[in-house]
Amino acid sequence: MATLSRPVVKLGGLESTGGSASPSPAARLRGWLAAWLPAIPLLVLVGLCLIGPVLVLIWQSFTGMGQSGPSLDLWAKVLGQARTQSAIATSLTLAGGCATITLIIGAPLAWMISRMLRGSRAFWLGLLNVAANFGGIGLAFSYTATIGSVGMLTLILQGLGVSFDAPRQGSMIALVLAYEYANVPLFVLLTIPAMAILRDDWWEAAQTAAATRFVFWRRIGAPILAPFLLAGWLLIFTWTLGIYGIAYGLAGQSGATAVQLITLQMGSALQSDVILGPGRAAILACVLMVFATASLILYRIILRRAMRWL
Fold first, then answer.
1. 170 and 255 in contact (C-beta within 8 Å)?
2. Which strand (E) or helix (H) includes residue 15?
3. H or E segment at 304?
4. DSSP letter string over 228-243?
């Protein structure tokens, strides 16, 4: 039987087969540089402004007591304190409560806005963008001027004869009210694109099968939107956990003892403790990073499940 052989071509006295030769290391290096060259400035910026400070923070958390080498003594001392444990528990409770309230209010609001006409939807999206980007000390001052003990709304209600006592500044209720001003608009903006997944013809098909609106939402609407809403809940949880400006603006210096929050404990450690303060603040920052990393990993897992509907 005749066999097929690869043609041989003579080039300058050298025999060469017709197959493609593997690229040389120099050619591979040039290809790699051509592919990654546009991203190199961004990677350098991420390394200097994100990865570098994180590594320094982790190193400082193990060497914050001034010893020559890394040690777990400061970790054991800080995490063993009752105020640190209270701050972690209070921060998680506040973040979980704010995220749940945001979900309850924001999910129906996002659904209604997503079904509005283009002009009305654009108006509400612009308003929500302004509210979502308003925070920090400015939001704390606005809360005090509106619902504080001598705030505008408080004085109006008391002038009308309504027995209204404003929440104590720096209390959990005051923090929740102030946080929700920015959390709800942010949640709505994050989840409005997901509302477009539910198509109108699905509801029409469900009606054709004699399904009620409750059955439609239980069997179709809720299972499809649940991963997106849960992902939004995780983002709001993580965002609330790291808020400092609003809490400091409302609680002030008393926040270190009156309201036990991780962010306030970090600020108090840097301001009042010159020796152990940086190390203690670094440890609390590492605790926040652990919570944030876990939340973002869960967010990616949930979002990957939700993306199958796209």
1. yes
2. strand 14-17
3. helix 277-306
4. HHHHHHHHHHHHHHT-
Grouping H, G, I as helix, E, B as strand and the rest as coil, residue 162 is coil
Cβ–Cβ < 8 Å for 289, 263: no
| pTM of the full structure | 0.79
- Looking at 2.60.120.260, 3.50.50.60, 1.10.3720.10, 3.30.499.10, the CATH number of the domain 79-137+168-309 comes to 1.10.3720.10
* Domain ranges within the chain, ordered by starting residue: 79-137+168-309
> pLDDT of 152-170, one tens digit each?
888 888 888 888 787 887 7
The burial of 58, by beta-carbon neighbours within 10 Å (0-12 exposed, 13-18 middle, 19 or more buried), is given as middle
Sign of CA pseudo-dihedral 115, 119, 123, 126: positive
Number of H helices, E strands in the chain: 15, 2
